[in-house]
Amino acid sequence: MPALFEANFGIPDTFLYAIVFIWGAVIGSFLNVVIHRVPNELSLLPSSKCPKCDNGIKPYHNIPIFGWLMLGGKCVVCKNPIAWRYPAVELVTGLVFVLTFSQIGLSAFLPVALVFVATMIALLFIDAEHMILPNVITYPLFVAALAVRIIYPIAIEGARFSDMNFAPVNYLVGYPEWAVSLAGALLGALAGGGSLWLVGAIWKALRGVEAMGLGDVKMLLGVGALLGWRLTLLTIFLGAFSGALVGVVMIMKSKDRDLQTQLPFGIFLGIGSIVALLFGERMISWYVSNFIP
Ligand SMILES: [Zn+2]
After folding, report:
1. For labelling, which of 90, 116, 186, 218 has a CA lying 20 to 30 Å from the CA of 147?
2. CA of 192 to the centre of ligand 1 (A)
3. What is the pLDDT of residues 182-223, one digit of tens each?
4. Which residues are close to ligand 1, an ion, with C-beta < 5 A?
5. pTM
6. Tens of pLDDT along 109-125?
7. How far apart are CA 174 and CA 167, in angstroms?
8. Is the preceding peptide bond at 39 cis, omega within 30 degrees of 0?
9. Domain ranges of the chain
């Protein structure tokens, strides 16, 4: 969005981006609470405590990123180190919010996109730390994605999700927009959750080991419902590609050649789905125009 706000409202774009970044960092500090407490089934009520000694943290130490820097990465009371994950999640969320805002712009879809990327950030950090993708996040993600796919075409004139312009969803002629959108969402969920489930089942049959948890499958139900089948298959491709790359590097660096460690695949799916949401349509059309005659 080049200089849109400067031209139209007299607000410098850099100022607007700074606000979006700060807002993202504040959401990031809430995501830290989610990442720490949801897998441990603790309450999400806002009360900032040192994760080790439970001592309250002063409000000014709660300022995203800077609070951690002011504390020198240590709790004032017990001097235990506070994980670098805290400022990292705040920084990442701030940057991803800026990126999302720059790609989506001020549109009715922006709130959905921001909630989606925030959810992906929470899931990928939870998977990295705890090796699980909690149902309390993946189930509501799926339900919310279906709701968005039904409500948006009804509430917003001309709102279309990108998969509705492509086969086989665009074959549905003469049905109301919300029904076409819902059909696209269900197909996307099937493409996402179904293909991951199938890969897991085949792997289990061949190797006799669980290749991935059902958490990944449930996560991709929600991603698939919102993004549609094309961007979801792109998400899986990006996730598998980057996951394989990291996996090969890890195996090469490790002494143990038959490494059986499970990579938390949710990390790569989370990153893949954010890339697919923001850049996916352009990536697909670039690929199609260059490689498909
Ligand atoms: Zn402490």
Report:
1. 90
2. 42
3. 999 999 999 999 999 998 888 888 887 776 678 999 999 999
4. 50, 52-53, 75, 77-78
5. 0.91
6. 999 999 999 999 999 99
7. 15
8. no
9. 1-106, 107-293
